Amino acid sequence: MRLVVVRSLILGIGGGTLGIAFAVARLDSLIASMPNLPRTEAIQLDGRVWAFALSMSMVSSILVAILPALKACRRKRPHALHTTAVAYTETRQHRVYQDLLIVFETAVALVLAVSAGLLIKSLWHLTAVELGFEPQGVTVARISFPDPYLEAQQQVFVENVLNRFHAIPGTEIVAFSDTLPLESITRALFWRPSKDQTIVPATVVAVSPGYFDVLQIPLREGRRFFSTEQESPAREVVISESVARSLWPDRPPVGEALLSGVSEDPSEFTVVGVTSDIGSRGPMQGLDHTVFVPLTVWLQETGNSSGRLRLIAQTSMSSEDLMATIKESDQRVGAEIQQMQDLYTVQIAGPRFRAILFGVLATFSCFLAAIGIYSILTYAVARRTREIGVCLALGVKPIQLFVQVLGPIMMRAVLGVALGLLGSMAVQQLLGSYLFGIQANDMSTYLTVTLSALAVFFVACAIPAQRAIRLDPASALRSE
Predict the structure, then answer these.
(1) pTM score
(2) In Å, what is the CA distance from 369 to each residue of 18, 94, 223, 453?
């Protein structure tokens, strides 16, 4: 018994060491492949990870070795001396252990595969969401003003920066806004002056002319805002299609009055245009009610107490040149440059990580299950070589022998898949909050994963079964 356990421990520790070495070698490339994964700086392989990995390797090795070791100790010595490898017939207990192993590993593999399938399909739905704007190729500068920095100073800064960028070749379109899609947003209530007073909550975005062109937001009707260089800017708004449908379902909204604020003393605006809906709160929230107000009006009414603005541009300038141009207007103003595409990538970083993680686990689990089935059936074929030779010599058809060898193991795999489906239906309720666009009981995912798993397990069974029917009867009968 001691020899069996020591041998298993050597193999387990060796495998655990190789696994740690592989993790050390691939950790940096794994993190680099997911640059927007949260808290990547906390991911490291320290002594605790190594100790846990080696401990699990040792525990697994002992658990694997202790059962056959105890069985060998209980075997009677005369029986062991008189039993040869050829003549020894597997006990019922031994077959039960093999069957349980097949059922367990196929069930676990299917639970992980279904989870991975749901998360991957959810990610596919998430990336297919139409945002209503184009983040690709848009550079963002997060502007922060020193304190104090009055509203008039901010107005002058905005005009100076826009004028400088417009004079630079290679800068196609530049605009300012108080916030960006996919960032934190401001919500307000809007209604029209009528008796029914239908109230619509909407996201409020303060923008300068050019904002819609930079983000390629289509204009459905009316017009956009005019220049910001106005001492008394018009109180105009551009609304999204969903706001127009909610408040003016029976007529065009352009030219209509729109109220917002406190019902006793609301602010009144005139609708001058309608744009397509945009996903201002991210792809998981879908398209949103949005009202765009002129940046000049917003600055005059609020003073921008947060001291922050966003500059967005379609430009071929480098980040250094972009920063220098901003600093030329006022050295005290801070700016942080990034790409808007990165904001979108951050939004789906969590779902992508979960899909990749479960996908990798499911792949390894199905691979190990297939290897386990293949190994057990190969072992069984080797033990039954003489029996198979006799069957072939007596004229048993190869297809009958193929079914006889493959059938029992495949039935265990099918049972494991059935149990895995039941386990998946129970476990998937925990994944419901992580899914987008699909239900946790999505039948197409269950069907696809189940058929794929059965195909993999069938191939694992078919290879040794095919090898069995190709045995030469004479050679099989002479085998020891």
Answers:
(1) 0.75
(2) 21, 19, 62, 10
